[in-house]
Design brief:
about 130 residues, Serine Threonine Protein Phosphatase 5, Tetratricopeptide repeat, single chain, mainly alpha
């Protein structure tokens, strides 16, 4: 809710606490979700922290993949594609977004599929 209200610092602080608690309790799925959320927050900031976003997405992909949380992994690929679209080769961004499209399509995640397709199309058309 903090992030939706534009309270980015509060969102980050709350998510960091959740990450710490989940780690202490051995709740690995929640740890993976917290990593994804921290990545989204880092990318959302006015002055995006791209390195932090990348490392958190990668941690979420690794852990989520190990745990079999495919929807989480798909959303991380969407985030990574957006990140690469800002600061990376366009080909890598498009490839990563296409992976997100394929994964979300396979799982019937139409909202996220549409977002990934829109992001990829913007990069392809340069708009």
């Amino acid at each position: 809710m903090y992030l939706l209200d534009g309270r980015v610092d509060a969102a980050a602080k709350s998510t960091e606490r959740a990450l710490t608690l989940a780690g202490k309790r051995g709740q690995q799925a929640e740890v993976a979700v917290a990593y994804r959320l921290l990545a989204d927050i880092a990318l959302y900031r006015d002055r995006a922290d791209l390195q932090s976003a990348k490392s958190h997405y990668e941690a979420a992909v690794e852990l989520g993949g190990r745990l079999g949380i495919r929807p989480l992994v798909a959303r991380c690929h969407l985030g990574l594609g957006r990140l690469y679209g800002r600061a990376g080769p366009a080909t890598l961004a498009i490839e990563t977004l296409r992976m997100a499209v394929a994964m979300t399509s396979d799982m019937g995640m139409s909202y996220w599929k549409d977002l990934a397709e829109d992001e990829a199309n913007k990069l392809i058309t340069g708009t």
